[in-house]
Amino acid sequence: xxxxxxxxxxxxxxxxxxxxxxxxxxxxxxxxxxxxxxxxxxxxxxxxxxxxxxxxxxxxxxxxxxxxxxxxxxxxxxxxxxxxxxxxxxxxxxxxxxxxxxxxxxxxxxxxxxxxxxxxxxxxxxxxxxxxxxxxxxxxxxxxxxxxxxxxxxxxxxxxxxxxxxxxxxxxxxxxxxxxxxxxxxxxxxxxxxxxxxxxxxxxxxxxxxxxxxxxxxxxxxxxxxxxxxxxxxxxxxxxxxxxxxxxxxxxxxxxxxxxxxx
Length: 263
What we know:
70% of the residues lie in helices and 5% in strands. The chain is mainly alpha-helical. The radius of gyration is 39 Å and the shape is rod-shaped.
């Protein structure tokens, strides 16, 4: 006569599925695959894309600030040249000097003009000329919007100082007027460069604030609740240990029955 054993213990009791909890604890994420939370996974994907966009927008804005700082630094050197040219022109307009002396001053004056040309033509950022009029504007991508940077033309033609000289008192007087206008123009456009830097700094602050809030929203959905996960892991481990102990007791009872039947 055959003996059919019966066990009320399901395999799922002594082999519970603890891998999702373990994976959640290990990765720090509540959603490790779409099956964990289908709707949550879609929201997390959208928030992650938003975070990545904000990070790149912040990087773009910082590069824009670096570009403007490069342009402003070169503009400061041009301003120094103009200030020196103004001094030379005022000196040359003095009636106590003769034309020979004015020619000596004019040599330095022309060297300063050449210096302005060299700076305007060579100032660049990532191989893009900034001060010679080649690029009057550059767009900075800020995620869902753009910021347009306006760049000045600080060549001698852009500053309207081409052809100036101080070889005589009349030319020196004309040079003073032209240089004064150029200095005023330079100051206005440098102020615009500064304003654009401040605008990008404000954009970065706004992007970083959005980023913090987006991170927090994603964290609430996707991050592991360690207190809850650990409690669940302990519960499952207790169930597993209890199931194993019960199965061992059952096996021992079967062995006793078989021993009695064999005796």
